[in-house]
User: Fold this.
Amino acid sequence: MLAFFRVVEVGKFIRIPFSNCVQIITIPVLINLKLLLRRPRFNLYHSIDGSRSAKISMPRKDFTVDGNVARCNWMITSLSKDGRIMEARRLFDEMRDPDVITWTSVISGFIKCGMIEEARRLFDRVDAKKNVVTWTAMVGGYIRSNKISEAEKLFHEMPNKNVVSWNTMIDGYAQNGGIDSAMYLFEKMPERNVVSWNTVVSMLARCDRIEEARKLFDRMPERDVISWTAMIAGLSKNGRIDEARLLFDRMPERNVVSWNAMITGYSQNSRLDEALDLFEKMPERDLPSWNTMITGLIQNGDLRRARKLFNGMPKKNVISWTTMITGYVQEGESEEALKIFSRMLSTNGAKPNQGTFVSVLGACSNLAGLGEGQQIHQIVSKTVYQDSTFVVSALINMYSKCGELKTARKMFDDGMTSQRDLDLDLVSWNGIIAAYAHHGCGKEAICLFNEMIKSGFKPDDSTYVGLISACSHAGLVEEGLKYFDELVKDGSVLVREDHYACLVDLCGRAGRLKEAVDFIERLETKPSARVWGALLAGCNVHANAKIGKLAAKKLLEVEPENAGTYMLLSNIYASTGKWKEASRVRLKMKDKGLKKQPGCSWIEVRNRVHAFVVGDKSHSQSKLIYSLIRDLHSKMRKVGYEPNNVFLSDDP
Assistant:
């Protein structure tokens, strides 16, 4: 089952926040990897986003009269583009009289290499030669470094501004959620070009202010293909797909990006047939076109057609492979995900990226495939992603799910020593807290949480999910309630369904079912299936038929075809001696044609996986295994264990 890795020679093995899995269709977008990793599943999206990361542009033309200076400028620009900024700086320092192009090239080079402070020191030198391009590059550098207040201050100090300067600052506000500030600056602009209009239209559409975006679009003195595409994407994102199609049909000219945007819109709105029809009609397709369509199919749960399209691709890139791997992981087909990963490695084409490793390690976690996870870990250790906090977090999760908590902790300790970015380090803290929660080590999770706070990290929503879950599994009810109360009072952390489900699970496991029901009734939002499922599980443990019936009823309203709900309710009735009600629930389940998937477990011994299903006697050593089980049962009875046969099913 999991041995496919061993079929391939180990020597051929050369590793998904998923940033590279999100296909950029128009203008570069900022992908928040942390949100992807937090959730139980990744959102496969090829989104059209109008925001542009601040770009650091090198001077394209050099009008320097002095030939020697012009040659030095060319060399400095070339070295900076190659990331050899210190060589560029040495050349700059050796020049007798660098001109404004030289200064701008070196400052831009430092910004491009992420050395914003060094760029600012050069910029502030008394002998510095600056023009509007230099100032704009510095403003863009601060925006690129997420230092919006410094960018704003420098922008207002600029002696002269051109349309690019204004666009850069507006885009900076847009990237950082300063919608009103961006609009205020846009209205103040002495002159605007099509980029100015595109920036604000895209920004408004992205922030669900679609009516304002449409009004601005209609006011535009001129539009290019980006204008139309951004508006189509915005309308699609806001559920106005038919209006988006009308705009698409009105476009004076379309490019492949426009077609991709419309296909993405149909996919986002679960209209797959129209998306596929448009895909077939495309005059030309690029790789993003194929990836967009495959992503749309996976988003809508059509893995079969996605695979067929994937197999028919004329060429695949890392996004194509990663999308398919993620799709299989999300659908619970982790073995197939590992097979796809193996094929990816054997093609010697696309190399795995950060997103690929996160997803495939997730597959190993789902299967408790320690051997496969260790092989992937070895691959990771030979890449630049070995210090990525997202990959480290995925490794922590994998080792934890495979029962190797000590190794998971070592991964955390080793990873923390090499990390510098506070926001990213939080992912590793969340990962190790979740690992301790998974193993029921509540006190250890609380100690880690306290250590995290002392180290200066602020907990986010994922932190609290792991922490409250750890308290629940360890029976630390009061501590869990205290942390949930802290979460609600914090205000800066979004309370989501996962937190509600954890709290209900906490109370349910402790038998405080009435408190759990009272909490659910006070919720301002409609409780999800996870919340009702947690309550039903608690009722099953504590044999509370009254509340269990309520929970099952609510759960079946959300998931009417869930066989597990019927089974749990039947077990609750049986445990309280209500055999008629239990029989009635089983009969109803049978009439609906529902059948609970039998439990399955497996163990790996000497590179071979042995799987066991309930009541299964197909194993070659089944007689010996059952003999050992009977012996264990006998010993358990001698020490006072009484088996609970109420929950045993008579179903074949």
